Amino acid sequence: MSDASIVLTTAGSQEEATRIAHALVERRLAACVNIVPRIESVYRWQGKVESATEWLLLIKTQASLFERVRDAVKELHSYDLPECVMLNISAGSHAYLDWIASNTVS
After folding, report:
1. Which residue in 19, 15, 7, 13 sits closest to 76, CA to CA?
2. Which of 7, 40, 54, 68 shows the smallest number of beta carbons within 10 Å?
3. How far apart are CA 18 and CA 2, in angstroms?
4. Cβ of 76: how many Cβ atoms within 10 Å?
């Protein structure tokens, strides 16, 4: 079983997404962050259905680093309640999973 995981968050602008991605990689909390531009999110917030254009961040990291990634996202994010959920990677290319591990702090 791999310790690799993907953490998802969204940002309200390209600039914010890029700033968060760079900070996570520079701090070695992520080996890579993919930024998926201009997604449309529909959600309930404070009793109302809202929609917004956002940028999705796919954060490649280790499950053991989730709390640190979550705390960094909260620190760097402009949202009151940023999305921060982790998906475990149950299988993958051994070389790629090793690369994630070697490019993050454990």
Report:
1. 19
2. 40
3. 27
4. 17
Instruction: Kindly state the tokens that stand for 39.
Output: 């997604």
Q: Give the model confidence (pLDDT) of 36-79 as tens digits.
A: 999 999 999 999 999 999 999 999 999 999 999 999 999 999 99
Encoding tokens for residue 37? 């531009």
Query: Do residues 77 and 16 lie in contact, with contact meaning Cβ atoms separated by under 8 Å?
Result: yes
Q: CB within 8 A of 70, min separation 6: which ones?
A: 7, 84
Is residue 9 within 8 A of residue 23, CB to CB? The reply is no
> Which class is domain 4-102?
alpha beta
Strands (E), 1-106: 4-11, 32-45, 48-62, 85-88
Would you say the pTM of this structure is higher than 0.85?
A: yes
**pLDDT value, residue 1:** 58
